[in-house]
């Protein structure tokens, strides 16, 4: 049986897989890391976030899943509500 690292190395030996992996690391993981850090710092449950957003727990769960998978991509307005619920704000910059 192969280890996780061996399976990862095997998958990344394929150029298409490696290209997509690099894109995800570059484009998607920084956002996810920021969201998870902010969520951990806020120390709130999904129920507390839902209440602050004026929505329900399943909606917060779907949003958090979308942030992880990128599908569907949440709107800026939804991200702003989520950020406000956890005591943060959203900045969009082109650099």
TrEMBL record:
SMART domains: HTH_XRE. GO terms for molecular function: DNA binding. InterPro entries: Cro/C1-type_HTH, Lambda_DNA-bd_dom_sf. Pfam families: HTH_3. Residues 41-93 form the HTH cro/C1-type domain. This is Transcriptional regulator.
């Amino acid at each position: 049986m192969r280890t996780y690292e061996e399976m990862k190395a095997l998958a990344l030996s394929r150029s298409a897989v490696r290209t997509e992996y690099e894109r995800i690391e570059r484009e998607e993981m920084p956002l996810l890391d920021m969201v998870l850090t902010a969520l951990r710092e806020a120390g709130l449950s999904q129920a507390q976030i839902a209440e602050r957003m004026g929505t329900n727990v399943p909606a917060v769960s779907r949003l958090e899943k979308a942030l992880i998978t990128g599908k569907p991509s949440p709107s800026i307005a939804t991200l702003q509500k989520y950020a406000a619920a956890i005591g943060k704000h959203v900045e969009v910059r082109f650099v």
